[in-house]
Amino acid sequence: MLATAPTPAYVYDLAAVRHNHTLLRAALPRRSGLYYSLKANPHPVLLAELRRCGTRAEVCSTGELRAAVDAGWSAQDILYTGPGKRDAELAEALDRGVLLFSVDTPYALDQLDRLAGERAVRVRALLRVNDDQPVPGQGLAMTGVPSQFGADTSWILDEPERFGGRAHTVVAGLHLYMGTNLTRADDLLTQFTRSVRTARRITEALAPYGMQLDILDLGGGFGAPFASAGSTVDLSALRPRLETLLDTEVSDWRTGATEVVFESGRYLVGTAGTLVTAVLDVKRSHGRDVVVLESGINHLGGMSGLRRLPPLQPHLVTAQATGRGGPLSALVTGPLCTPLDVWARSAELPGLRPGDRVAVPNTGAYGLYASLVAFLGHPLPAEIVHDSERPETQPHASRLTLTRTTD
Description:
About 25% of the residues lie in helices and about 25% in strands. It is an alpha/beta fold.
């Protein structure tokens, strides 16, 4: 598939998605739920496969909501999150039948309650919590720092009356998400232990104001290699330790009185994708080898290219022999008309020529959908979905396009 796909193309393997789901379920408590975070990759064929695997959908925009519904998820199985929501998007979610929302502030509770009341429906809210201390080992801190995500633990404990239920909104649980991209069971357990203990304190404080801990969303942070060599991390050692933690801190989780749920994006789809792209030009410049590819920060790593994340250093896989022109220690760039379009400053590569192919592994999450697709107007890559365990299945090929409409 990688040798025959048109370039540039993101190639996704459904067999890898199923494999990752099996590994993650084996790492989580048996009686827990699992949401797929569409932000990682909302491709409709991947979504349909993840739904068949048994995940629910976690969305944070109208576009993601529509993608989830189109993929077959019932609106009642969708969790709508996000630190700020417009009236219009909440209204559409309510009109579609979404009944579970994550909220971050008393204002957000009031807003949701007002819109639910206008529709004479009763909804459930998970109060998102920004704990007062970060947890070590995080790839990207989501808590313990000034943040748009959640209400500070100290704020909730100081003013619990502001976080209780409303006429049309039941505060049915808590949502805690400490950090991202953790690849060690020890780090994940530390994160979840902190979250569970914070949840117990907040539950006790909010109980007089009508909150019942029906749902405890512990988030995720399950790491995966990105644009680098590597395979799905085995986190199976986490399950028995998590179950022991929950037995100690959430006594009714095994009966289902409190449902414990987790979220994952990158772990489920990260290793299922590969970006295949072609070499456009090779030259020497000021004593350096320079390789220009047809993909740049517009196709991969746009947020990194803007220095919003650490600079990207993709691992490039080639099929060419190293003897062709000698190995290169190359500046690797894309075709964009900006010096920021750099993938690597010094990549060790075999001798390459225009027309050769290179592949970037483990780009199934936060690849195309976290890039600068509108910048400079280059065509977007094709997206090809195949199933390596079912070669008789016809691959699905599609391409995103940008269109302009008149309001």
